[in-house]
What does this fold into?
Amino acid sequence: VQLQASGGGLVQAGGSLRLSCVVSGIISRFHTMSWHRQAPGKQRELVAGITSGGSPSYADPVKARFTISRDTAKNTVYLQMNNLKPEDTAVYYCRMNADYWGQGTLVTVSS
It folds into this structure.
């Protein structure tokens, strides 16, 4: 099983990015997928998750700004991030259940 995250980059505050997590080796729609982030000097934290049934959940700091979704045909999970803030700067990781992590993609939001 491999998770390949991409889509990070440098964006100004108020901008948007869409992260992708392509899963290989397993059918991801049967599993809970989540996005986490780790800012410099801080612990990794859960940002958003989506169950096998498609129910999303979000951490309070990103509610109403971030949207998690999945494309079952592409075996891919997305994180649409809007109205980005400097405090969103972090390395973002995708995760399947509690078992597998992607390699991380860096998001930098400038003020």
